[in-house]
Each structure stands twice: as structure tokens, then as C-alpha cells.
Amino acid sequence: MMKSRGGRVLASAAAAVLVVSLILGGCAGGPKQGAPEAEKPARDTIVVALAREGETLDHIRTSWTTDAHYTVMDRLVERDFDLKYRPHLAESWSSSPDGKVWTFKLRKDAKFHDGTPFNAAAVKWFFEALLDPENASPSASDYAFISRIETPDEHTVEFHLKDPYPNILFKLSTTYAGIISPEAYRKYGPKGTNEYGTKQMVGTGLYRFVEWVPGDHLLVTANPDYQWGPEFVQNKGPAPIKNIKYRIIPDAATRLMEFEAGNVDLLLEVAPQDVERVSKLPNVQVFRKPHFGLGYLAFATDKKPFNKVKVRQAINLAVDREAIVKSVFFGVASPAYGYLPPLLPEYVEDQQAHRYDPEEAKKLLAEAGYPQGFKCNLATLNKTEHVRVAEAVQAALARIGIQTEITQYDNASYAAFLKEGKQELFIREYSWSSADILQWFLYGSQFPYPNHSRWVDKKTDQLIDAAEYAPNMEAREQGYKVLQEYLISQAVWCPIWFPEKVQAVRTDKVQNFRMHPLYTIFNDVTLK
Hints:
This protein is 29% helix and 22% strand. The chain contains 15 helices and 20 strands. Strands 1, 8, 9, 10, 11, 12, 13, 14, 15, 16, 17 and 18 form a 12-stranded mixed sheet that branches. A hairpin with a 3-residue loop joins β8 and β9. α8 packs antiparallel against α10 and α14 (458-468) packs antiparallel against α15 (473-489). The chain is globular and about 65 Å long.
């Protein structure tokens, strides 16, 4: 069933690509055969490979955003290449002495792609939409600290908070805080034509949405009115490159083949097994940095036998993290012994709880009432590394008597599968630069989605509340450490690997590219 859907999408995709080629004229169609070099049309499109896409581009209603969200949507606050908070749609901000009122002064020159003005009313509408229970936004809990929003004038917004919330600038800087045009959402959103997120996407960003062909590509084109680039980029005006074509290529081998053939200019994810090979290619520059991410094996903790902590602990002891990092990631990752990436100040690790000890795992399984093991399903995204991790986990669990059948899903099908609550064991990976990712995935109100682990636990909620609403960053950091120690004691997840961020760019085609720790920034990037 999944394959037949894909077949129809590909047929549509081919037609759409032809139309886009005709529209774009220059890059996609390529030079005429036999034309002199001087007559070749200038390239105006950079081709970027994405390993996965979301089930919708409506970030009010999805738990997965892509780089395209960053280019189409602007936020009140940005993070520069050193991850410092910088003004963007908000020119400045201040907080009251008690930390419960944050005032943002907005730019007066920005406007949405549909021509409507960016102003305080738009900001108020957007965050109230995120919090509206009728929209069932996965991000609603992220902004639950907001009590009300006031707009003293057209270009001033006041966030009144329930309690002091020191992490507010982070929340306003994420891709989930990109301000959508209220007019566009009323027209194309769930109460309109319901095309928002599939055929429409309207922000104030450097690029405008053109089209999305699921499973094939997403095309955006430069916003000619853009004059409000953030202070940490040199070019504040329209993007130098006319179009960005994001090609959706989940298979790592295919991404590499297209990159080597010159059909892709920028690889946002170089597969671990390809890093050495890509590094040796001529006219290619490779960028590597530690990543704010975690790959892990999750359980449906409300279902037998995963509702027993000893079963979850046994699985944690059965998985050889070091071997997986070596065999699947070729060393371009590190073994994970905690739930948050080591780059975060809240990081806690427990190597004893996550050691490789299959004999102790068998003993725990027997104590839990499963001396002969059991059978279950192991689900994974169809991303190459995830499938290989699933195969390694399958082999590891077989050694302690747990027989698994692996099922692969594309991104949209995987999200639907998890929302329906059909999972037992499943491979997940997140990318997030704040400890509140634990609230996102494990807070009770996030059940059943994005709380895929189906972990509803009063003590967890209490510890998250204590950390998330701590009066200052130091108390918040300590609160999240206590939370992680409790989660590890309950073996809520089985952390496996901390990924490394590796990107590659063709230097014979692209110049001025800089790797950002979180996003891809095209303001200063040009084509040769």
C-alpha cells in the first residue's frame, strides 16, 4: 500500500519537475546541446539533498521541521554561528524586574510573502494559534509558559508569563516559532481550503514557497522584497541565489551518487560510511561538528512487556553501543549513555546503566517473567543508518531471546504509525539544542503524540515542571539533571548513539557557504 502511494507521487513528481524546468529555464533545463560556452545560461538554482521530509509543512501541526522552514519563515529571535541570540523580526527586547513580562520591539519594514504586513497583531495571532487546543499543536506545551499576549501598539508585543521563564529566547528562536501570515492561514488553513502545509506556506523569510512534491522535492524562490537579514550575515537583502531546490533522497547511497554526479550541490547529511570517500573528492569541502542530537531505541511503555522496568533495563544491557557506533557509523558518532547530547550543560551520563552485559540482561528478563524472551515488532524510518541500527538491535536482542521483525516506514507513514499508537519497539532520532526536548517527548500532556514512548508518569511531569519553570538557568540545569537520573533509573529509553553533523558542498559550484550548528543559512551563499 505504501509503495503504490509512492508510485503515484513519483508520476506526479515527474510532471511537476518538467513544469518547473520550463519555468526556471536556466539551471534545470541545462545548456542547449552544442551551444558555445559563452551562451550557456547562468545557474540560478542550488540543489540541496534532504534525507527526510515532514508529513506537512504546517509547523503548527507537525513535530518535524526541515531547513526549508528556516528559509521561508523568520523568527523574532535568531541564533548566530556561535549560538548567541540575535535580533531579527524583533529589533530589541527587555524583561520586567520580576521576569514575568517580556517586551519585544518589532521591525517596521518586514512584510509577509502574500503582501500583508508583519506586525504585533500577526505575532499575537500566531502564538495564540499554537496554544489553541482546537489546533492540537504538538508545540503547544512548548509555549504553555505564556499567560497572555498584549499589543500596546502596532510594533510592540508583550508576552505576559505565568511564571519567570528564563528559556524564552530559545523558544522564540526555533523553527517552530517562525511567524506565519495570519491572512494566509485563515485562507488556506484547516478552516479554509486546508491547503496550508501542502500547497501553501507563507512567512516573511529569505525565500518564498513555490511547490512541494512529497517524496521528490521542495522548491523555494528568493523573496525580492527581503531587506531584513539578521545582523550576523553580510547580505541583508534578497538572496543571491534565485532558487533552492531541496531534493528528498532518503537513501544515503543515492544521495552520494547524485552528489558525485554533480546533480546535488550541497549535502546536508553525509552518511557516516561516506565521510572518508566524500573527503577525498576533488572540488568538495567537508564540514564536521558535534551535533545536538540523540539516536535511541524507544518502547511503548504502556504495553506488555515494555511496561516492566526490568524488561526495559534488560534491553538497555543487551545493546552494544560501541559496536554499533563502529559498524554502522564508522566512528562518525559516539556511544550514547544519556538522554541529552553532551553539548548541553544539562548533560548527564550513566555508563553503568547502559553497559553491554547480555548475561545480566537475560537474568533481568527472567526476573520480569520472560525467561524464554518474546516476539515483537521493531519499527524504523527507512533512512539508511536507522535501518542498519535496527538490524544491529535485532541481532543483539536475539542473543537474549527477544525475536523482532523489522518494519520500515517513510517519514509520513512513520508519523501516522506512531500517532495511531501501533508501535512496540522503534528507532528514533531527534535534533534539538535544548533540554526541553525531554518535555516534548515525555511530558504527560504530550501523550499520545509526540509522546511516542507513551510514558505518562506523575513524577516525570513534576520533575519537568520543576526544571522547566525554574527561576534561573542554573536551577533549570540542575532540575534537568535530576530528571535525567530518574528517567535512566526507569530505563524509559535505550540511548544508542550521539550523531555527528557532517555536510559537504561542491566548491566548484558554490561559494561562501558556512556551516551553522543548527540551520542552513543562504543569505551570503553564491553560485559560481
